Amino acid sequence: MLINLITIWRKFFHQLLRNQLSLILIPITILLLIGTFGYAILEGWSLLDALYATIITVTTVGYGDLSPVTPGGRIFAIFFALSAIGMASYAISAVAARVIQWEHNRVEQTKLEKRMQAIQDLQNHVIICGASNIGRISGLYFTRARQDFIVVEADEDRLRRALLYLDVEYLHKKFGGYFDIANAVDVTEDEQLSLEKLTAKVQIPYLLADPTDDSTLIAAGIGRAKGVVASLDSDERNLFTVVSARALSQRLDNTKLRIVALVHDDKNGVKLQVAGADQLVVPEKGSGQQIQMSMMSPRLADFAYRTTIKGTAGYALQQLEDDPAASWDGKTVTNLSAEQQLVVLAIWRKGNYLYSPAPETCLHSEDELIVFAASQQQDIFGRMNQSDKR
Question: How many Cβ atoms sit within 10 Å of the Cβ of residue 232?
Answer without folding.
Answer: 27
